[in-house]
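Entry 14. Structure prediction run on the chain below.
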Amino acid sequence: MSGCETGGKSDARSAAPDRAVGKGFIKFGPGSAQTGIALAQAEAMPKHNSKHKNRRSRMKTKKAQQKDVATDEAIEQILCECLTEIPFVEVDKVEQRVIADPTRPEIVARIRVRGQETAILAVVKENGQPRLVREAIAKLHEYQQTYANAYGLVVAPFLTPMSARICRQEGVGYLDLSGNCRLNFDFVFISKTGRIVPTSKKKNFRSWYSPRVERVLRVLFLQPQHLWTTWDLAMEAFVTPGQALSVKNQLSNHHWLEEFKEGFRLSRPDLLLDDWSENYLPGRSVERVFSSSKSVVEIENMLASVCQEQVIPYALMGFSAAMRFDPLLQYNRVSAYAASDLSKIISALDLTETKGKGNVSLWVPYDEGVLRGAELFEHVKVTSHIQTFLDLISLEGRGEKAANNIWENFIKPKWTPQPAAAAAAVAVAAAAA
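Output returned:
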């Protein structure tokens, strides 16, 4: 157990990146006669000095003052720093969970706002990927059932923009180890942005997700229970054994693989898919927009017929594909991938290209792997669940909702052992014994 002194400065402030601006204020409810607002701003500005000897001495002093701080202690310091910048917030104490206990949050901060006590419950995650953040939020909702007047907080070294948006939508706060945060409860609102996450904390793997790497990932996702050898995976994904081995090693480094004597397979497809979607670039495919007087159904059926006759690899994508997985989804625009010269399709469908908002989007995929796993729905091909998820998840609102629906109802169940299958396995084992 440890506390934090109101108004005091912690070592975490000295390590905060430059040019970070934070704002906090007290919000007064309806009917309150008091309308004053306390505004606290913290801006860390680098100080310049033209004299090299002074700069060198400052560097030595700063280096001497740095201390190794445990992760939980660093979180406590950063959280205290955020809270104590608001004069109306009194921090009573901050408790750290000493013994692992799944029924209790890692950190509990007890504060008072205008005499009312509030408990801030913090769940700490090793990274801020959306899937882990959703897990943390589910835990926080459980904890809030046993704590009176409690507010949930997700803490991670770095949170992606999507993760931050999820927290806002779920009414949960967030905090990263650089001090970026958002807390909004009762009469308190604290928001800090702009603090740069150190490169060691935030690695950019966008360049790693090349078309060849994605071919391997699609194979792993499309056959979830298959145990792969490096050679077999390379042959199936149309890459070299060396490239397949490189992908395997990268996934192992992230602990997203499980290995057996017979081979290996994905163990955390949720985390891999989150990371992939965060780094996925739809713009690599080339889009052309057209208009047509025909209905959506007519265009889709004609597109399927033309591509079948001309042997053109194709698949409906985006909302056009998602509608097959969720019939209640409404859409009024045809979107499809077509891996060839589009002239035959344009001529057969009598499409008129437009620079405005048309009702037909044809995409030439950056790699034919995009079409891998395409499924047939009533004589029309649509992209796989994985590709449809990737195409929609970055579209805030309806797209994100449709993508999460695909994950929950079509992708996730393939990685979850079914009760009947588990019971059958137990029966077989018992019979063999």
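The longest helix spans residues 398-415.
Filed with the rest of this week's runs.
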